[in-house]
Amino acid sequence: MSIDAAGFEDPIALEGGKKSRKNLTNGRLRLVIMFLILAFGAIGVRLVMLGVAQAGDIGAQTARAAAAPARPPIVDRNGRDLAMDILVPSLYASPRQIIDLDEAVEKLSAELPDLDREWLREKLDGNEGFVWIKREMSPAAQERVFNLGIPGINFRTESKRYYPGRNVASHVLGSVNVDNQGIAGMEKYLDSDEFGIVRLAQNAQAGSSAMLSIDLRVQYALRDELADAIERYQAIAAAGVIVDVATGEVLAMASLPDFDPNDPRSALEEGRFNRITAGTFELGSTFKTVTMAGALDSGAVQITDEFDAREPIRFGRFTINDYRGKRRILSLPEVYKFSSNIGTIRVMQAMGKDNYRAFLTRVGFDDALAIELPETKLSSIPHVFSEVGAATASFGHGLSITPLHMATAVAAFVNDGIMVPPTLLLRSKEQAQALGTRVISSATSLQIRYLMRLNALEGSGRRMNRISDGYLVGGKTGTADKVVDGRYDDSKNFTAFASAFPMDDPQYAMVILVDEPKRENEQSGTTAGWNAGEVTGRVVQKIAPILGIMPNFSELSDAAMVPLELRGADLSD
């Protein structure tokens, strides 16, 4: 039997059930949608709140990353520490989290009296999420502030540069700012693209030490003697540099007065600049070594030539004389050891003033110093010499160069005539040879070595030689009147001694300066032999054993330096 479903009421009931279920489903969807809207809304609100609350933290993290980057340690050529990063607390505030402004200002001012109260109030009264209050605090100060329990006051750990040797190499190392960024010296160089290229060439790993050419033992010895010189001669300043003649590596460089890089503000005090690279001076008769090198190498004069030093030389209204002159014909070695201005002018004139000017260019005196330090200064030399200008330049007056220019030239004169640019980074002899430029011949180099040693034995370097006995130092003194208000003041001297040692096998060149020295006693003088020369002798006496140089007291070594043309000649006064 068939059944007709249309006769039943179930289909009507079924249709109603569908509608009911549809309504239920729509309601549930509405609830789900409303829930999702509320949930996402809550999440959005929370994100906004987190963004507001943590904006300061994000800013702090960004500031910390930018302000205190990790720097590579700096070490000397033997791995001794020169500069390193240490971790220190720095105080910051989240002003919007501060509840009681007056209380915060009062309590912080009491614990940190160096903070200006008005400045502090202005900092804490803003709506920022992050502001620095005091960078690089001591742990003790951190503990005192922490114990105040001020809401919105917190600490972050930063890197701070620390220099364990303090002043010992301040002008070499330079300093960093509060954000640990280099602002002077090698610290500034470490942030340069050039140093980055050097590190890549060395395959240096990030964070590995930056090794300098400085020998900390030699650096200490040099600085100690310069400090002694200022006290001994009541000078206003003293400076010195020691260079490896074969590689151009600077083993020591100091300029006093100096500063403590742990307190870089002290570097701003008057007179605390690096005289070796950033000061130019008339170096007086040390320049006679340059003149002799140029003239001998030109072939215009021979070491056996003689020069008339009997009368002063006149250029119009200018008259040039000798200091304690011999008033006679002088051989070339005598011109040098007696430091005759008249004889030196005649040597230069034989070469020719234009050729002499070209030689100064050849030895790099017109060029900027090829050294990593940013604190450098260009020489001041006339582009074209007049007759009188060339004459005074031949004995180191009327032109100014940096002491490092002179040290680099002396190194070349005794290093077989090869000039190598100076560096504060390690450099091998092979690398130096690739960079070297010949400025004089090997034969001229041997003659200059002889002249420098002769002056130490019989000339103005005798006091130096007695102090450094056995280390075969050769060198030339230089004394110049200082320029005051545009005029030379003969009551104020600037003295220098440019040297190298040991002269039988030169390894190191050195320049020492003493600014405005006074007499050490009633029997002494103020010219360079009495001060800069003596300082040179004491430095050599200290550093030669450190550098492995043995004393040599054999007269045969000095005899072997005499040129063949002069053997048997009587050069005594």
UniProtKB/TrEMBL annotation:
Q: Give compartment(s).
A: Membrane
Q: Where is the Penicillin-binding protein transpeptidase domain?
A: 240-524
Task: Read off the InterPro entries from this record.
Answer: Beta-lactam/transpept, Beta-lactam/transpept-like, PBP_dimer, PBP_dimer_sf, PCN-bd_Tpept
Pfam families from the UniProt entry: PBP_dimer (PF03717), Transpeptidase (PF00905)
Boundaries of every Penicillin-binding protein dimerisation domain copy: 68-180
Keyword presence, Nucleus: no
Q: Which GO terms describe its cellular component?
A: plasma membrane
Q: Keywords for this entry?
A: Cell cycle, Cell division, Glycosyltransferase, Membrane, Transferase, Transmembrane, Transmembrane helix
What is one process in the GO biological process aspect for this record?
cell wall organization
One GO molecular-function annotation for this sequence? Answer: penicillin binding
Which residues constitute the signal peptide according to the record? none
Enzyme Commission identifier(s): 2.4.1.129
Give the residue spans that cross the bilayer: 29-52
Transmembrane helix as a keyword of this entry, yes or no, is yes
Q: Know the name of this protein?
A: Cell division protein FtsI [Peptidoglycan synthetase]
Where does this protein come from, organism-wise?
hydrothermal vent metagenome
